[in-house]
Design a protein that fits this description.
By secondary structure, the chain is an alpha/beta fold. The chain contains 17 helices and 16 strands. The strands form 5 sheets. It has a 5-stranded antiparallel beta sheet with strand order 2-1-5-4-3, sandwiched between helices. Strand 1 and strand 2 form a beta hairpin. It is globular and about 75 Å long.
Length: about 425
């Protein structure tokens, strides 16, 4: 087996960032690509990977994250996991792949870790999905794994969970990112419109067709075709879509020439397509053609710890140039709201609050009446966790949120005071 120095020299020949780790998590070498992308903190060699990437005092698996080294050590095979790393540019999602290196006796001596950022330096815009919760990271990891292929992806989730944004992210992470991303809202198309919009039509194909129209399949050539609310496509149009996907060819309405189709299909729906197949509302063969790689988009209540970060991002978009923020009391109301409308509902609530706030702080009175009512007069927040008998998990959640409000939302300070990692604190804040 090569020694650490030889492995280090080998890593320098690789174009992607790599580090060499020993079995105690210590960094033994970092290649040129790593130092170019992530810099070289003082004392990098000899520090642990979890100190550098996560600012943790203990390995990832003891801090609420899955550890690729533990997986690779247990299976003896490469392990690949999506993590959130601290970088010179701030926190970033990084695709981490760890490969064990064995000695002549078959014992694992080192691990080579490859780190891939989830966007390319030459892209015009990096993916703008926001989150770091376990549910969000699982979803983003699946999107990242599917992106390089041409396999159809089916996005499943409630309305308002950001399925079009997920489709755009998948497109940006793919090799087709420099070609068009073409969204189609299937719920707003009649049977006649669906065919002409998708395939286009020739001049004279029907009354009013005064000139040739290029369909969206042609517009998406070389890029990504996103069919939103796929479950709303009429049955007879499902046949035409299936033929398009199976043959890779189509004809314009009223045309005789067969044209090639070149697009990556991403579809989305909030409906239960399996149940629609059973009831005869959706074709069985089309379902299996489009559902090779399903991805569940978590509802906001499933990733509640992402809400403060999402709110900050939305406020920056809704009020650019205005240093507006949410008061701890208002944030507590938001965190207790079930958000049946998901991120779309959060955006609407914040858009209204921005208009009502006279200064740069959103207060509880700026939020809609349907959000949680304030505590009864005469009862402090300290009593909220003990005012009724509740499960211990719920009591802990209420206390943690109250404590966070006392620190004006400073999660790092609260984590230190509670003696837990920030990752553990995020999990406790989001648990219901």
């Amino acid at each position: 087996m090569p020694c650490a120095a030889e492995l280090s020299a080998l890593l320098d020949t690789l174009s992607e960032p790599h580090v060499l780790l020993d079995t105690e998590y210590r960094i033994r070498a970092a290649n040129l690509a790593y130092r170019r992308v992530y810099g070289e903190p003082v004392g990098l060699i000899g520090m642990t990977c979890y100190q550098v990437s996560h600012r943790f005092d203990e390995p990832c698996d003891r801090s609420g994250e899955e550890c690729p080294m533990q997986v690779a050590r247990r299976t003896g095979r490469p392990a690949r996991i999506l993590h959130v790393h601290h970088t010179p540019r701030g926190e970033e999602h990084v695709d981490v792949e760890l490969t064990p290196i064995r000695d002549r006796d078959g014992e694992i001596r080192y691990f080579v870790e490859c780190l891939r950022r989830l966007h390319h330096d030459d892209t015009r815009s990096q993916p703008s999905m926001v989150g770091r919760s376990p549910a969000f990271n699982r979803m983003l990891e699946l999107i990242n794994r599917a992106a390089p292929s041409t396999t159809p992806v089916l996005l499943l989730g409630e309305s308002g969970t950001g399925k079009e944004l997920a489709a755009q992210t998948l497109h940006e992470l793919s090799s087709r990112r420099d070609r068009p991303f073409v969204p189609v809202d299937c719920s707003g198309l009649s049977e006649a419109l669906f065919e002409s919009e998708l395939f286009g039509y020739e001049k004279g194909a029907f009354t009013g067709a005064t000139q040739r129209k290029i369909g969206l399949v042609e517009v998406a050539a070389g890029g990504t075709l996103f069919l939103d609310e796929l479950g709303d496509i009429p049955l007879n149009m499902q046949v035409k879509l299936l033929r398009l996907l199976e043959t890779g060819a189509f004809r314009r309405v009223g045309g005789i020439e067969t044209l090639p189709a070149d697009f990556r299909l991403v579809a989305a729906t909030h409906r239960d397509l399996r149940r629609m197949v059973e009831s005869g509302q959706f074709r069985n063969d089309l379902y299996y053609r489009i559902s090779a790689f399903p991805v569940h988009l978590p509802a906001l209540r499933e990733r509640r710890e992402d809400l403060p970060r999402l709110a900050d991002t939305l406020l920056a978009r809704l009020a650019p140039g205005r240093a507006i923020h949410i008061s701890p009391a208002a944030m507590a109301r938001l965190l207790d709201h079930p958000f049946p409308g998901n991120v779309r509902e959060l955006r609407n609530i914040l858009e209204r609050a921005v208009l009502l706030a006279d200064d740069d702080e959103i207060l509880p009175e700026h939020l809609p009446e349907e959000l949680a009512e304030p505590l009864p007069a005469g009862r402090g927040a300290e009593d909220a966790a003990t005012a009724e008998i509740v499960p211990l998990d719920e009591a802990e959640r209420r206390y943690v949120r109250w404590a966070l409000a006392q620190l004006d939302g400073d999660k790092s300070a609260l984590a230190r005071l509670l003696g837990v990692s920030e990752r553990t604190l995020y999990r406790k804040l989001g648990r219901r």
